[in-house]
C-alpha cells in the first residue's frame, strides 16, 4: 500500500466521503504546491493541540490561545504539551455565566449542538450523549454517557455544591431530550428517560422532549402517518 | 395546432407534467391499440358523471352507483342529466354518523384531505378551503371559501337546527387549521383565524392549528431555525 | 374496484407514471370542471381516429384531415370508418419526395424517430423496428419487425419496381442502425446486422451503425471503459 | 479567524466540498483521537515529499522510495531536501520502455490521465496540458503548457536525439487530443490543433481527436443535436 492508498483510506473516513472522492482529494493534494499541504498538515496538528473536550458537556471546543495556560496549567507545568481532550476544561457555553443553567438539552453529537447553538433559539446548557442507543443493544452503557449524564444532573440540581463555586447559577429545572425523529432516536429518548427518571424525580426536575409535528416545508399531502399523528396530538 | 399539440397542451396541465412528458403521453396513446384509448376516454367521461362535490365539505367524491338516483333526484326530475358537482350531495365522510362531528379540520385541497384520511389518525369532519391565501393579496374572498366556512361553523355549532335533521350529532367544539408549513400556509392560518374568530368565540368553539416541530426523518443537525424554534417551544 | 381505481390503473401505464402520481391525475380530473374532462376524452378518441400507422416505416402519425379520404379510400368506400392504424397509408416522411431515399435509419421506437427528426441532422428515411432484442431470447421474430425490414430493403433497393410508382426516388445505398448504447442495444445491432446481411450484400447496400464515442457533456475523468475505448478507436 | 475557520477555508478548496461539509470535516477531526490527526498530518507532509512532477508529461506521481536517491540526486548533493515537484524526474509511464511512444495523448489534467490509464484501453504516452483554454481569453500561453507541448513534440519526433538516450523508442506518429466534450473543450481542441499544426506537419505527425458520438447509456430519444450529428457523421 503506497502513500496514495494510505491517504485515500484516511480520507474515506471523513463524513460523506467515498473511495472515489477520497482518491480525488489525494490527487488534489499532489497537484497543489507544497505550502498548501504544509499549511494543512500544520493546522491539523494545531487543531488537535488547541482542541479540548469540555468536562461539563463533553463537547469538543477550541481553547482560546490567551487562556490556554490558565485553563490547562497541569499539562503546562511539567513541561509537557497540554493533553489533547484534557477533560478538566470548560467550554465557552458551560463556562459562560449568561448561559441559562436551569435547562439542559441532551443531544446525540457535537454537530447537533452546533446547529442548535447557531439557530440562537436556545440559551441553556447542553450535554453530548455521544451516540444513539441501537434498538437491539446489549452493552449500551459503554457507548453513551448515561452515567456521566446522571452525575451531571446531580451536580446541576444543587449548583451551590459545585466544586467550581459558580454560586450564582440557577438550579437545573428541566432536561430537554433532543434526538432526531427516527426509530433509533425515539428509542434513545425512551431509554434515557427511563435511566434518568429517578434522579430527576428526586430533584424535582422536569424531563421533556422536543416537540414533534409539521416541520418547515412539510406538505400535508406528503406527510407520513407518524408526523400527522404527532401534528394532530400536539395541535394548539 | 394539430391534435398532437392540443392533447399535449391538456396533459401539460396534469400535476407535475411538463411539455416533454406531455408529448410522450400523446405518442404513448398513439401507439396503444384503439381499445385502450377508448377505455380511457370512457372512464374519463364516466368519472365526471359519477363525481359530485360535497355540499358540506366541498370535497369531490364518487357518488356510489346504487344511490345515485336517490341522492340526486333534483337533476333527474326535470329530465336533465344530473349536474356534475351538484352541490346538494353529501360525501361518505360528512354523511357518516360515525364521523366525529365535534372537530372540523380545515385543509387547503382535496389531496390533503385524502392524505389525512388515509393515515387513519383523525376521525372528525373536514372542510376544503379551496386554496391558500397569497401573502400579498387584495381579492381573497373570491378565491377561498371563507364565507362558506363561516356558514359551516354556524350550522355545525347548533346541529339541532340542521335541515338534514341529523339530531344525534355532537355540536362543533374545535376547528383545526391544517395548512402546510410555508410562508403562505402560515399566512393562511392567520387570515382564517382572524376571519372565523368572532363566530367561533360566540359559539364557544376552540380554534387550533396542527402542531409544529420535528417531523419524521428530521435530523437536528440539518434543521432550520424555525423548526428548532417550534420544536423547542412545543416540547413536552 | 371503483372508477378511481380503474382510472388509476390506466394512468399507471403512462410512461414514467407510478401509482401515486396516477392517483393524483384522477383527483386532478375530479376537481377540474366538466368541459376539461370532456375535451380530454374527445381528443383522446379523435387522436385514435386520426392516427394511422405508416405502411412504409411503421411510424404512428396523424393523418391530415383534408387528405384523410384520398389517402385511405379503402376504408371509406364500403361505408366503414377508416380503420385505426390502417397500414396502407404513408406518413409525411416516407411520402415526401424531398426525403433522401438512399439512406434508411433503423430505430427502436417512435420517440427515437421523433428525436432524430427534430434534430434536423438527418434527412433520410426511417424504419421502426418496434423494440430491442433481449440478450436471452428465443422467439425474437414475433416481437420485432425483422421480416418487414428485409422486405422494405428489397423494395427500396429497386425503387422502380415499387408499386407506388415513385420512379424518381434514389435506390437505397446505406442502412444505418441507430440503437441506444446498452447491452440490449448492442445485441440488437448485431442481430439485425446478421439478419439483413445477405439481402444487403446482394443489393450492394452498406450497413453502418451510429458512431460511438464521447457525447456532449462527457468528461474524460468520469468516462466508462467502453466509451473511452470507442472514443479512442473512432478518433479522427 | 480561529483555527476552525482557517481549516474550513482550506477544506473548502478540496474538489466538490462546500462550506458546510468543510466545517463538518473540521468537527470530525476535532472528535477523532490525536493519533488519527497526527497520522493524517504526517501522510500529507510525506505525500508532498514523495511527489514529483514528471519532466516529460508534467504528471504528478509518487517517486518510489527505493529509487528516490538515484532519481533525484541533484537535490541531495548540495545538502538540500529534494525539491518538491522537481522537474528532472520521469514518471513510471514516460520511463517505461513498454509504453508505446508513437502516440501522445494530450489531456487537460491529472485525473483525466488516471482515468484513461485505469481503463487499460491505451498504452501510449500522455501530456498534461494543465487546463482548458477559455473561449474568451487573452493570455492563454501563461496558463496552459502549449510551448512545452511543442518542445515535447519536437523531442519525440526525433527520439535518437533525446538526451536520455532511450534509443529503442519509436518516433512519434500521432497526437491524440483528448478533451471533454464541452464548448471549452472543443475550443481547446481547435486552439491546440492550430498551435501545433506547423511542428506536427513538418515532422509528418498526424493530429487526431477522440471520436464523438453515442456514449454508454446514451438513449437516442434523449440525445442532444450535437451528439446525434456526431454519431451520424461518425457512423461506420
Notes on the protein architecture:
The structure is a homotetramer of 236-residue chains. Chain A is of the alpha/beta class and 236 residues long. Chain A is 42% helix and 11% strand. Chain A contains nine helices and six strands, in the order H-H-H-E-E-H-H-E-H-E-H-E-H-E-H. In chain A, the strands form two sheets. The first copy, chain A, has a four-stranded parallel β-sheet. In chain A, strands 1-2 form a two-stranded antiparallel ribbon. In chain A, helix 6 links the parallel strand 3 (100-107) and strand 4. In chain A, helix 1 packs across helix 2 and helix 7 runs parallel beside helix 8. The model of chain A is unreliable at 68-87 (pLDDT under 50). Chains A and B meet through helix 6 and helix 9 of A and helix 6 and helix 9 of B.
Q: What class, by secondary structure content of chain A?
A: alpha/beta
- In quaternary terms, these chains amount to homotetramer
Number of helices of chain A: 9
Helix and strand string of chain A, N-terminal first?
A: HHHEEHHEHEHEHEH
Q: What's the story with the biggest beta sheet of chain A?
A: 4 strands, parallel
Mean pLDDT of chain A: 85
| Approximate helicity band of chain A | 40-55%
What is the approximate shape of chain A? globular
Amino acid at each position: 500500500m503506497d502513500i496514495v492508498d494510505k491517504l485515500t483510506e484516511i480520507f474515506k473516513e471523513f463524513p460523506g466521503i467515498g473511495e472515489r472522492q477520497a482518491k480525488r482529494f489525494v490527487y488534489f493534494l499532489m497537484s497543489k504546491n507544497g505550502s498548501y499541504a504544509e499549511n494543512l498538515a500544520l493546522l491539523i496538528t494545531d487543531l488537535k493541540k488547541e482542541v479540548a473536550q469540555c468536562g461539563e458537556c463533553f463537547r469538543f471546543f477550541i481553547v482560546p490561545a490567551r487562556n490556554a495556560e490558565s485553563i490547562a496549567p497541569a499539562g503546562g507545568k511539567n513541561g509537557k504539551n497540554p493533553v489533547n481532550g484534557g477533560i478538566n476544561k470548560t467550554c465557552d457555553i458551560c463556562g459562560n455565566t449568561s448561559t441559562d443553567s436551569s435547562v439542559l438539552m441532551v443531544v446525540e453529537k457535537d454537530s447537533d449542538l452546533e446547529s442548535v447553538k447557531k439557530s440562537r433559539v436556545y440559551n441553556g446548557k447542553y450535554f453530548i450523549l455521544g451516540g444513539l442507543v441501537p434498538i437491539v443493544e446489549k452493552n449500551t452503557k459503554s457507548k453513551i454517557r448515561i452515567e456521566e449524564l446522571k452525575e451531571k444532573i446531580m451536580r446541576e440540581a444543587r449548583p451551590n455544591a459545585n466544586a467550581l463555586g459558580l454560586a450564582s447559577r440557577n438550579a437545573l429545572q428541566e432536561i430537554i431530550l433532543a434526538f432526531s425523529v427516527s426509530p433509533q432516536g425515539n428509542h434513545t429518548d425512551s431509554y434515557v428517560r427511563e435511566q434518568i427518571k429517578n434522579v430527576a424525580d428526586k430533584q424535582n426536575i422536569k424531563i421533556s422532549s422536543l416537540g414533534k409535528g409539521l416541520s418547515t416545508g412539510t406538505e400535508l399531502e406528503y406527510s407520513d402517518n407518524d408526523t400527522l399523528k404527532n401534528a394532530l396530538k400536539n395541535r394548539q
